[in-house]
């Protein structure tokens, strides 16, 4: 038997909801914060002060980061009336409260206040930004971003794709204009693999890559302007302030797929923007989908690529080497070579789990042949162990009917099998210290009218370990163990005399909180007489393996 993979606390929360059911839920959504209605106004509160009533504007494609301290940050973004913001917000997943950190409390379309390049100032501001920018968190916890789309009240060019680099110091709450021009500029690639102070990626948006390598260099791929997507891979070195053109630009953006699963220096993904991205535990960079030809809604992709910075090579791992492909569904929690998510853009909700699998949610799908787009709400996982996609969760029995699904709100802050964020795209996404996935805002459709509208709700998602067990990603321990009586009202007994011995026991509630922690014996008694009725999880562990069991307190 393979060793059990380490299960983080987040997997424990949704082991089973009903004690007599043999079927597992494939994950559980929780409405964490924000408004359940449409066309709502932001509530800024007092600058720098967290408050449960604070909430950002409804936003599409803001800049977003996860800080070194585990807090979530967003900047800018676009609202339903096409106003572009310049506010910085911070969300603490421990308190579930927003803080308005900096900005102009809701004034839109403001220009940048740059100050002196390289010099921080409390009056500096990047100005309004939207439509996605590559954003990085450095080893000191500072937040960086490049470019993005800007809209301004005055001037001969009110709409601009920017080419400037900014740094935000989380200790002083000050912005610094680090690099680039105050006006749009063309890319200067220089010589491939050679850093140069004259190099620049130029003006662009529609890219949310956040790759940071082991040497604290920043990376991103693609992005673009309107109908012109890029296929360049860039690296920025903060210690020197130089950009380096690392790959791409040799096949006129058409790409070279090579052999599936094989890294090769000749491989190159086709040009794209508004793609999904991840960085895995081995510091490899992953890219899925995106738009091949900008705003033309008939050139969406569904291919999955990996870049290894150690060997400067790409590898095509999954999906189609063609445009505008449809979903290839299969049974939930069963990975297969034939499965793949549909073509899509703006699927910015993306996470890495504790065993290295890639997860993605939502996005905007292009219906092949008619250039009509729909919003998605399926949860997919790329299983790193088998290098296969699997469908994890669909809100409907037939995934084909999940397109443009509406939001379903339960009780705020309470996990609920009936709660669901609905179909959306252009979100911000994060992962907390316990491995729980979070998603904020984005674009969804209003019921009845079907009009696209931005929202400001925050959701969390907790994967179910039984789905991963079904997929053989992790294995459950099937050897005999007796837990009795179950259900019980006073105490449980755990008899593990006839199998491998677990030395530590944790009793946890469905919110992940540890209710009791004790050393195990061959027969262990757990007093539950003071606990509230409900479902609890027993986590048994030793130095090499884990096991989870469900109990019901009456």
Major sheet details:
4 strands, antiparallel
Question: What would CATH call the architecture of the domain at 482-553?
Answer: Sandwich
What is the distance, rounded to the nearest whole angstrom, between the alpha carbons of the first and last residues?
35 Å
How are the strands of the largest sheet arranged?
A: 1-26-25-24
The quaternary structure here is single chain
Class derived from helix and strand content: mainly beta
Tell me the Rg in angstroms.
Answer: 24 Å
Overall pLDDT: 87
The CATH class of the domain at 482-553, by name, is Mainly Beta
Number of strands: 33
Strand content: 35-45%
Q: Tally the helices: what do you get? A: 2
Q: Enumerate the spans where pLDDT stays under 50 for 5 or more consecutive residues.
A: 1-25
Task: Give the key terms.
mainly beta, four-stranded antiparallel β-sheet, 36% strand, disordered N terminus
Topology, please?
Elements: H1 9-12, E1 28-33, E2 63-66, E3 72-75, E4 88-92, E5 97-102, E6 135-137, E7 143-151, E8 159-169, E9 174-180, E10 211-212, E11 218-221, E12 224-225, E13 228-229, E14 233-237, E15 242-247, E16 276-279, E17 285-291, E18 300-308, E19 313-318, E20 349-352, E21 358-367, E22 372-383, E23 388-393, E24 428-431, E25 437-445, E26 452-462, H2 465-470, E27 482-484, E28 491-495, E29 504-508, E30 514-519, E31 523-527, E32 534-541, E33 546-553
Antiparallel strand pairs: 1-26, 2-3, 3-4, 4-5, 6-7, 7-8, 8-9, 10-11, 11-14, 12-13, 14-15, 16-17, 17-18, 18-19, 20-21, 21-22, 22-23, 24-25, 25-26, 27-28, 28-31, 29-30, 29-32, 32-33
